[in-house]
Amino acid sequence: MTTTLTRPNTWRLALPVNTLLINANQNLHYRKKTELIKALRQTAWATARAANLPALQRAHIFYVIHPDTKTRRRDPGNWSPSVKAVVDGLVDAGILPDDNHHHLLGPDPRLGTPIKGSQLVLWITDLDQLAPDHTAFLNPPGDPS
To answer: What angle do CA 113, 36, 126 make, to 5 degrees?
Structure first.
């Protein structure tokens, strides 16, 4: 008996190069951090709307951080404060109803190749199209960058 599995829909959402990101190692004043979070949320909202992403009930997200070429130490998990703000922007845009565990798996960090100015890229997979035992399909085909 042969079973045909289909890959669920996956979308690549790339924030503009040189978008100011928040790193967990930064010691920012709370007002500056609040401004950056607001800017990231708005950028994610606008980028998601421009990409015509559909509304999803459940999704898996992993993010690829392409650090600046000047960055020497590269721990992709350190950019999680930026990703939290970006995911909140997706909720604001109506892509996800909420970012709690009922609607979101992840976000999981990956490290991409360094580029001048740095860039944050999200890969969003529709989990409603995926049977619970088919988690091997969570990574998109090809290079995750």
So the answer is: 60
